[in-house]
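Sat 14:20. Reprocessing the chain from the morning session after the first attempt stalled halfway. Input below, unchanged.
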Amino acid sequence: MWTRNSLALLVFFFLMQGTGSGAPKRLELGFPQLSERVQVVLPENYSPERKWPAVFYYHGTGGKPTTSVMQAHTRNRDWIVVGMTYTQEGSLPATADYLEKEFVILASARRHLAAKWNLDPRRCYVGGFSKGGWMAGFLLQYDPSLAGGIILGAGHQFLIRPPKKFRRSKSLFVGVGRMDENYPFALRAIVHYRSLGARATMKEWSGVGHALPEGGSMALTQWMGLEAYPEENYKEEVRGWLDERLDLIQGLPDLVDQWMAIRDLERMPFLRMAGAGDKARVSALRSALEKGGRVGAEAKALVAHQVLLRQEARGHSLSGCQKLATKYLALSEDHGGTRQAEVALGDHERMKKLILHLRAQRKIEAELKAEEKKDGLPGIDPFKGGGEERRRIPDNPLLRK
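Finished this time. Tokens:
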């Protein structure tokens, strides 16, 4: 049985590609517990003269260790990118015993890269998409030494350990398609990690389902740049970026498109670094648009929609989902003709699917309890996480891998 003190790292494979400093650009790490080698890419501006932040990225179900998603967002600079994989294929158990096995691999890779390639142990992040996003969240709960995480196409559902306030500052990026059925769990992740003291940023991608946006996420690129150099003064850079974006937005022919783009702008990581005057300028433009008829109707519908989403983010009981399904449908009818009405109708359909799942789950639970009672065993509620061995993300069909 592997423990934290076991020799988890078996052998290293190096693919030599020269950088300006003569260090290898790529390398692979082999572990006896893994069927695939862990992939590592050093940044193009790598130098042994300094320590580097690192992101350990976990792929989705059926994938292989990859660095490409993170490289696209770091622009191959400033970060050591590590493509991770899992000790077992398929479902992802939400248990501390399973996380310990994954932690052994993560800790071993981290120690090696710190010793050989100047990885900064205090600036290690975990990330992933879909199944990898759930893994990133689990590891954030499990390992208090992590600096932060990137949860994409996933969110928060199960507790690995009783929640405690973070002793050191952590930064979290949550990215999810608005049409992704994992969207409410992404909202829940924001609420959960902020309650523990994390600086959490959420980016929802309009019109996107269970996928990353085509061309990548500008918000994630900005977030990673700020995390790499948090001490920098970005006000001049942000002002130039903001002027360019506002020119493009104000050139859009549709006022609702302008309003949506400005709302998106307000949630970008760069805007947090802007001066008070620049922030006020953006806010004033949004407020002016909301005084118009069509945009005003969209803004009013959005406020009502956000109330329901906050309710959903608290949890999913059968009775709660039934009420929300009715409310989402009513919202779509009350605000007909708005884009929010179309999105609310999609939320209504999502609730209908979840209701069917919860009913089926209840039936399974009743049958299990009957069997356990017959055998003299205690009952377990697997959806609520009462049984450790049954706490697997794929048990819920809405949580796609």
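The radius of gyration is 23 Å.
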